[in-house]
Amino acid sequence: VSERVRDIAHLSHIELLTPKPEESLFYFEAILGMEVAGESGDSVYLRGFGDYERSSLKLTASPQSGVGHLAYRTHSREALDRRVAALEAAGAAGGWIEGDLGHGRAYSFLDPDGHRIELFHDSERYVAPPELQPALKNQPHRYPGRGVGVRHLDHVNFLAVDPGENRVFCEQSLGLRLTEQIVLDDGTEAGVWLASNQKSYDLTYTRDVTGTHGRLHHIAFFVDQREDVLRAADIFLEHGIVMESGPHKHAIQQTFFLYTYEPGGNRIEVCAGGFLIFDPEHEPVVWTQAERAKGQAWGMQTVASFHIKGTPPVAEEDVLLARSAAH
Amino acid sequence: VSERVRDIAHLSHIELLTPKPEESLFYFEAILGMEVAGESGDSVYLRGFGDYERSSLKLTASPQSGVGHLAYRTHSREALDRRVAALEAAGAAGGWIEGDLGHGRAYSFLDPDGHRIELFHDSERYVAPPELQPALKNQPHRYPGRGVGVRHLDHVNFLAVDPGENRVFCEQSLGLRLTEQIVLDDGTEAGVWLASNQKSYDLTYTRDVTGTHGRLHHIAFFVDQREDVLRAADIFLEHGIVMESGPHKHAIQQTFFLYTYEPGGNRIEVCAGGFLIFDPEHEPVVWTQAERAKGQAWGMQTVASFHIKGTPPVAEEDVLLARSAAH
Amino acid sequence: VSERVRDIAHLSHIELLTPKPEESLFYFEAILGMEVAGESGDSVYLRGFGDYERSSLKLTASPQSGVGHLAYRTHSREALDRRVAALEAAGAAGGWIEGDLGHGRAYSFLDPDGHRIELFHDSERYVAPPELQPALKNQPHRYPGRGVGVRHLDHVNFLAVDPGENRVFCEQSLGLRLTEQIVLDDGTEAGVWLASNQKSYDLTYTRDVTGTHGRLHHIAFFVDQREDVLRAADIFLEHGIVMESGPHKHAIQQTFFLYTYEPGGNRIEVCAGGFLIFDPEHEPVVWTQAERAKGQAWGMQTVASFHIKGTPPVAEEDVLLARSAAH
Amino acid sequence: VSERVRDIAHLSHIELLTPKPEESLFYFEAILGMEVAGESGDSVYLRGFGDYERSSLKLTASPQSGVGHLAYRTHSREALDRRVAALEAAGAAGGWIEGDLGHGRAYSFLDPDGHRIELFHDSERYVAPPELQPALKNQPHRYPGRGVGVRHLDHVNFLAVDPGENRVFCEQSLGLRLTEQIVLDDGTEAGVWLASNQKSYDLTYTRDVTGTHGRLHHIAFFVDQREDVLRAADIFLEHGIVMESGPHKHAIQQTFFLYTYEPGGNRIEVCAGGFLIFDPEHEPVVWTQAERAKGQAWGMQTVASFHIKGTPPVAEEDVLLARSAAH
After folding, report:
1. For residue A5, pLDDT beyond 80
2. Regions in chain B scoring below 50 on pLDDT
3. pLDDT tens-digit profile of C10-25?
4. DSSP of C150-194, one letter per residue?
5. In chain A, which residues have their Cβ closer than 8 Å to the Cβ of B225?
6. How many whole angstroms separate alpha carbon C36 and alpha carbon C276?
7. What is the DSSP letter of D172?
8. What global pTM score does this model have?
9. Which among B136, B180, B252 has the least Cβ separation from residue A254?
10. From chain D, which residues contact B within 8 Å (Cβ)?
């Protein structure tokens, strides 16, 4: 494994669908402190102060919430070609698209659960306009001093009917590596954490208990300090933003987290901490059903909605939430 | 460049020489909160709670302070062979050694300035003894709750008469990439920051103004939060440890830093923050003489000793310090 | 009110009863980072690095958990006499005792719910022994750099069958002022927060839902930063200490909290933040039943045990916990 | 002393003079995150989110920088009368004024060094307009989520030709208590820290080395966490605000500090931490000349300008700065 060329460089951006585009834009721009980096059709492109590419979030008006697509950038054009060859050999029915604001041609395909993923290499390196010029030249744009102040897109968590199937696909076709996973007593993989680089994960699949395909659990933006997450909680509170869970520390991956719902209905995490994986021969950490039942790192039990709800919403969620409340 | 196989996986460990081995051990074990992971001859091996290998610091009794060697781990045995071939092709007069506590055979050579560097692949994955078992299985050993509590070795800063020469060597023979540098008005490279992976640097060369070869400026250990650095300052204060500079934020690389001297005379940094570099085509950030003269990120001027002193100490330092004080 | 001489200077110390004195001592000394300041009979006296008196915690071996007594220091001997006169006029059946390690004669009495409270003035100012001498002379003893590192005793929360009755007593006989309270729809006071000085509270009474008298809900120690509370959570985790709730922020008083159980069974809080009350005519903040039902500041619902359990434990708790779980 | 009625409740507000009113307003409103609470003539009134009175800062356009007046609120009208009687008995040539936006009639006088001080009791309790309503009812206005986010005015530092003379005046006429001081080898008091309540200081006098009367060294605003001070440094950096010194920790009073210059030329501190003084018989901590020479808590030497410059500026400063640079 360690010899294999790593073709995927990093998670690049996510397209989020929202039925309330103006309110969602306010959430990302005014509350999270992101900057608008472009507009096109029904979409607004946003970025954190540490994103080196043009944008990490494409916010698209849509009748329903959920995810449009997720994009990884490859190390080179050749790496892109290698991944496309591997995907096509594996039967992924993808195709090339022209690109988008901020990046060139991309290969677009579906993961086994039906989420759209794009791979591209040619990317526009962001150059800040005068009013966003940073004081330190090694930073893409100035620290906003407004709202939460997120640095960059950290990771995406898809829901999937069968996380294990998607894990195998990501390992084999994309070259992602599994770093942690939950394996239930019956052998089912309830959650898989995958990484394209030394971050300990950038893509996660957890089980969609409603049995629906192609849904989103959450996307996460990174802040530098755990204190930034605590401060974010006060900011969300003042804006009436629903905080579902946290701030607390995950046992899995040790991320310090806070989950909110943006006005369009999608779950958004603000996170800090965690660790890097330096070991080229790192063995996945496997969490058992009993270990997972212990709750989060410091003992908090995550609320039922966290394990049930995704976007777009489905009717089955209400049944499961009612059942959970009846316990 | 992005196509080239990255053979070096990460900075593994550093051997530090100390004329006061017991006091130095107290500094690393009781004050920094590291654990002893072995002893051999005149050396004690230490580790932070996040180091996945056996140890990241080999502390060796010696008549003088300074560095024994620095070691990088490669991605594979084949990667190790490739680097050795490249080194030998470049005329590096190295040789194989049997290995050491915690790792297998290694190729040992000198950088152009005369610092000893070792490359190896076979490494012992650390398994915590019962009393150091962590509560969370994705952590090598338990959080110490003692002293500063450093997570892992972060980077090493060598002094060199010609940083540029060493930069070229590291790029060409080791495959490290330059991420930031200081280039003076006369074209001299006064400092170079190099990375083997997505950390923005793990090896730095800055100019030895005394004209001496093979010296150490400092080694740095990482803590998770900037607050940990502030807390460390209080702990150093109570132990009478000399704090030379900080806590403050570097303009270059944006690391939040605190420089101390361990009892053996070596400069040790506790650091937090910084950022990762995801761009496979990242262009080095070049700082000019004028930009560097502005001081650190928030305006602090670093004290003269920071720019003059290294280990082992040399007489020329005193001349330069006296001249600096006379200004 | 603002004209009335404030006779009570501050919360001084608490006597905690423990059936597991050695394990409890380990909790306070090794995990919280307190220092032993004396021993006498079955009691060990402990202190935080910011306590100016000899000790803030008297830990006494006892068949059952719970509280021995709570002590306030008065501004002067005359203030003490005034309070005793007021107490006796109000029919408090107290009496003088000889004093204890660290303070002189004290007046001992019961609050309406049956908790023992002592008032005294003459107090021994702590002088650190050589090994605990602080680097900064304006600090009572050195920052421990061990465990959590609590600064001082912050507040005590008694359970009471009728918090309102105890509130009236504390206001009238002790001169404490009410700063916040929970008033249920039927007019019952479910919780009262009282202050002797500019801290926003140092004594709290909340309802004992088991109907038992004289019990303790928790005592709290202060740390300087919210980050210290997060770090404390990692330390408790590594020691297997039960964390009942938090870290999170209270809506009432805005304290950043983490509740644990020390091995003797008493609930201990580590807290940070909050605010001072400068207004001499401050009006109590009244929280309604509906407001309280919203949970903590950032939305967390406190677990059932938090509202039911106290020390010493009583059988009725189990009935209530079972009933709560059945919901 | 402890018996004496404390007549002064707390530091209420400061009037700051600025020759650049618009730029200064931008500094306090956009960068510090304060809210405008009124305007009158050449003055704008500002407040932090934790100030319970209408405002803590009156910003007044003026040909020169410096301080207009400082105001303390008394515990009651009777307390105000007592202080006025004491002041007049001591020969303070003060007089009554009608009051100002946010407070009623006040007694206005000069301290021995010539700074104007006002005492008042009747104060308008701030009620937030709808757009500033806080989510938690125990907070005066909502957390801004904009800029630094200061909670309240913390303290004022006047320069004085003879700090000791002003210390005696404040103790005897105002009832402030001395908590810490610097006494030079020749017996001169180089700095005195005074408190009206359990904060360890709210008014400081340090020596004006230019020999000028009535000048200001700095005013300070409080933030909740040390991390807020670090974050403030990044915000100041992005706005090109001059940071003179810090972030660092003072040895005296242990405040974590960052000194900046607002555009009008006045030195403004953002601070966190410190401690409360609970001891009614607290003895002042005396720092010697040698102890002060050690620099700040963690070893930083404060820059020369910090010891020389005040507002309004005087020509003598340049002479002293030049002499200092020549060393």
Report:
1. no
2. 1-3
3. 999 999 999 999 999 9
4. --EEEEEEEEES-HHHHHHHIIIII--EEEEEEE-TTS-EEEEEE
5. 225-227, 273
6. 30
7. I
8. 0.98
9. B136
10. 226-227, 230, 233-234, 236-237, 242-244, 246-249, 256, 258, 297-300
